[in-house]
Please model this.
Amino acid sequence: MPAANRQLIYANTPSPAIDPSLDNGTFKLNTTPIPDNVPDDKVLVRVHYLSLDPAMRQWLTAKRSYIAPVERGQIMRGQSIAQVLRVGAGLQSKYQAGDWVVAYSGWQEYALLGAKEAQKVTVPAGCQPTDAMSVLGITGLTAYFGMMDVAKPKAGETVVISGAAGATGMVAGQIARVQGAKRVVGLAGSADKCEFLRRELGFDAAINYKDADWKKQLKEATPEYIDVFFDNVGGEILDACLARAAKDARFAICGAISQYNAAKPQGPASFMTVISQRVMMKGFIVLDYTKQYPAALKDLATWLTQGKIKRKEHIVPGGLESAPKSLVDLYEGINTGKMMVEVAPVSEAIAVKAKL
Amino acid sequence: MPAANRQLIYANTPSPAIDPSLDNGTFKLNTTPIPDNVPDDKVLVRVHYLSLDPAMRQWLTAKRSYIAPVERGQIMRGQSIAQVLRVGAGLQSKYQAGDWVVAYSGWQEYALLGAKEAQKVTVPAGCQPTDAMSVLGITGLTAYFGMMDVAKPKAGETVVISGAAGATGMVAGQIARVQGAKRVVGLAGSADKCEFLRRELGFDAAINYKDADWKKQLKEATPEYIDVFFDNVGGEILDACLARAAKDARFAICGAISQYNAAKPQGPASFMTVISQRVMMKGFIVLDYTKQYPAALKDLATWLTQGKIKRKEHIVPGGLESAPKSLVDLYEGINTGKMMVEVAPVSEAIAVKAKL
Model:
């Protein structure tokens, strides 16, 4: 084990775009020793896979939001899949070296964490540990509650998903199908992603919003208008879908990735449709549903093992330093499926208890 | 009785503002004979008070909406308080001359109407026939369902109403108080209207959105943010209220009078708050609630007679010709309370059965 722990510190406020350079950019590298002593109520973990999430840009902005911003000078906040290396005396009934955990480690290679910050991964049959950061993690749960509690697609309805090839969107679309949606339509940012949605996930239509005629394609793909829209993107895409809203449509507003870096956000100009079609739009945050996670994870694991939901991971190599650039890439939409940075390969893991 | 019936015909599409001139403007005057023969299934009515409603501008636009547009060449659509003059043979068990009705007459002085288009006004004790076009009519019902079914204010909450001195807004604010709201705040377009809201209706605060510092006033008037927003105005006001939304706020989107004449409508730029504060926004149309009208009218009549809801009418003199200019004035916001055009004064009524 090396003696040094490398960390990425939030150094400079984005203005408004994230600067991925480690030389006076948004983040800077810091090196500290790996702790020798593990306190009684902590575990020492090694981070293997960092999660990259669209919400991260919002955490860097000191606005009233659902979660306190990351302060400059702090380690960048983030979830990871990590392995327990050493266990404090008070936690030895709970963890042992080699356990895999979902860790609230932030962007660093090693972390000392309390029990609440290191959730042991139990892997349902047919699933894998990294699922705990995608279909069986926050992104899958986000898709689940957005669909099951907010949008509530019904049999026979037309459901449209934006950011459909992202970690949340692809699960949201598949849940809509499980719920009996008649047409599932995805919006994504490349021909490859659209091909993936149609071929591998069985979407009825997938539209590349970078095509010049994407609005025409959207119209053709939704001949009976849009009953449910699950939005990860906001901006122009939300606007176009609002203009196609069916009577009594439900719009689950999950994210607005197109707007997070915008100095001057755009509201949906087709807002009048909210009245004429009695549209219900509702924002939601997965953290409000923590009590319902166990039941939701049971459904998601069932669908995953039955093949009704398929997983897709986008793993970036290159270690911790890849994280800032990968976050910029996430906003550029390069990923299909859940985006993670490989901080340390599985081959470096110790005494593996769970198959990764 | 004169032999001629004057009518206002929808002549030219607004571009985008309504042109009130009767000489090649949006409407033109037409004169036809008053029918001599009343068919068996009709009544002949004389219009006394025409209702002016913000929705009218939308009816002139051939867009997908909750109601078919008025076609050019047709009589302008509109509700009125009218008096039955003659009754067809088949309707004599239902009406008699002198009855007051809420009439779907359109903009004309006389009309032949079927039973569905002429609803007899029953006046609860302590109420008056014109109430059937305000607190006990569509505007009161709109306020009722927007509050009771969509926004659902709870005891202790902060409720904000835009267009608060209008026919719907003033009832909405008073219903919020009946429901136990802690703070009721109105937005209106003049110091007089604000004075009326505070003094006569007991609003906790009223803000003139034409004041340079209205956003600052809004902030000060909502120290615990906004739990419920009942919106009649849209545009910049909706945007400012969205920026002040409390967690789990409900926004009942009733109308967007600021946008109806806009060539390029504006969406709410503070849309991100929908996510961060889990805001629910829902458009609604009173016509969806027809089955629930009787129960709602019972509540409204009770509150009106108990003085918990106060009425306010803005009656424009000058006969039918005043309607186009008055409609423009409605969008300018000159009225406090329900705006009506007096087509014929009560003194000209025949055999009055109900006190007007």
About this structure: Chain A has a mean pLDDT of 93. The first strand of chain A starts at residue 4 and ends at 10. Chain A has nine helices and 15 strands.
